[in-house]
Amino acid sequence: MRSLLPAALLVAPLAVLAAPPGRTCHLPGTEEALRCFTVTVPLDYRQPGKTIAIHATVAPAYREAARPDPLFVLAGGPGQAGSDILPILEAALRRVRATRDIVLIDQRGTGLSGKLDCKTPPDIDTMTEEQLDADARRCVEKLGAPYQHYGTDAAARDIERIRVALGYRQVNVWGASYGTRLAQHYVRLYPNSVRALVLDGVAAPDQVIPAGGRDAQAALDATFRQCEANAACARAFPALRAEFASLSARLAQGPLTVTMADPRTTVVRPVQISSRRFAATVHRVLYAQADAYSLPFLIHSAYQGRWEPFVARSNRDTDLSADGSMSGPLYLAVVCAEDFPRLTPQLVEADTRGSFLAAPQVTQLAALCPAVNVKPVTSAAPTMIAAPALLLSGAQDPVTPPRRAEAAAKWMKSAQHLVVANGGHVVSTLGCLPRLLREFLDQPTRRIDGACLAEIPAPTFQLDSAGPQP
């Protein structure tokens, strides 16, 4: 075990850094021309020598008289890059951008910052879990990256180098999901560099990322209750809980091989459905409320033997979604050092008791963590954060529900917490929140009136193959 050394012992002088030359760039996810910067930072802050290039995308403020404090954007995962989520500029940050630069950072090992990449095997649908794990181990070992230098602490120090290199005195920080962990670590290391924080889908300081069974089950139970309370959904799927339990019990006995038309190619071939794949897909569907309201239809279809809709949704995570571009090796580098060592048998038993999201994820980490070969990191006890913070939660978030934000807020001197009743994981794009983000960043010490969040409607349930109800 090793502890993080005090910040003062680790950071080389920053004043000598020259501002990097920027360039005009066109990146997927936006039609407009942006500014791209590359900042060279030490690979190992404890022993400067080798370096790594960190990418930052700057979306300039719309108004010429921009405020001097930009908004730094930290993506989730770990494994997602700022350049992977460029649509957020329009979806959530358009009002903020009116007066502030938006700076999206690609964490080291993601996106355009030397992405650690393992491609999805083309025959993933027919591979066993053991074969998938073996393929992942081979890729991680073949990459041969110094994974011990890709943790949260190094990423936070990279952010400070970017701030100085781009010439900003103070910044605001928006982080989502794992990005909230990174944001909290950054502001604790460099409290004078941060003016205000917006944390969406808040990770608590004591949260262990793989221990998500309790929160996932709570979100699933909420979806079941809402279906039972909705006349059309209850009529279409009257035995939903029993069907889900039956599927889970069947897959717990061993993988199910289904001959079906591949949703990608329409070619008829065998597809393997394992307990791990089933649970992981259900978990991912619960992230967004619009997706969660398709879950009763997916479960019922699978129970009837028609697995095509479920497999198509499972494939979406690797084919089309932003998560498909995430770095699996970077995820392992962070989680295997910072979370897996805290995953005690007692925590696993308590977290998975009664949850559909049980042992397979823990078993997979136990198989893959030796490949990244990172030492356990023991973080120092959290210290108080003085910067004003706006915490955002979705009431039905299966990963970072409101209780996680409440735990994080105990370590903040000035925190406001807004909860979207009809929200899932990461809610900044919903309803009036883009306006509230601007209001908070303009006056971060002023109380935000979140009454408009109650106007965000729940999606409609999908009852058949035609899609959600009108």
Output the keywords.
470 residues, alpha/beta, nine-stranded mixed beta sheet, two-stranded parallel ribbon, 15 strands, disordered N terminus, hydrolase, Serine_prot/Carboxylest_S33
User: Shape, please?
Assistant: globular
Q: Mean pLDDT score, rounded?
A: 90
Largest sheet: 9 strands, mixed
Helicity range: 25-40%
Give me the secondary-structure category. alpha/beta
Instruction: Kindly report the spatial arrangement of strands forming the biggest sheet.
Output: 2-3-4-6-5-7-8-12-13
Radius of gyration: 22 Å
Instruction: Outline the low-pLDDT stretches.
Output: 1-19
By CATH, the topology of the domain at 2-117 and 144-209 and 380-455 is Rossmann fold
Relative strand content: 15-25%
CATH architecture of the domain at 2-117 and 144-209 and 380-455: 3-Layer(aba) Sandwich
Structure description:
Belongs to the peptidase S33 family. The chain has helices at 7-10, 88-91, 94-97, 129-143, 152-165, 178-189, 213-229, 231-236, 240-252, 275-285, 289-292, 295-303, 308-319, 328-338, 345-352, 359-372, 402-409, 433-442, and strands at 2-3, 23-25, 34-42, 51-59, 71-74, 102-105, 171-176, 194-200, 256-261, 268-273, 377-378, 389-394, 415-420, 462-464, 467-468. Helix 4 packs parallel to helix 16, helix 10 (275-285) packs across helix 13 and helix 14 packs across helix 16 (359-372). The protein is α/β, with parallel strands linked by helices. It has a domain at 2-117 and 144-209 and 380-455: Alpha/Beta hydrolase fold, catalytic domain (Rossmann fold), CATH 3.40.50.1820. The longest helix is centred in the middle third of the chain and has 17 residues, at 213-229. The strands form four sheets. It has a nine-stranded mixed β-sheet with strand order 2-3-4-6-5-7-8-12-13, with helices on both faces. A two-stranded parallel sheet has the order 1-11. The termini are far apart. The protein contains 18 helices and 15 strands. Helix content is 37%, strand content 16%. Strand 9 (256-261) and strand 10 (268-273) form a beta hairpin.
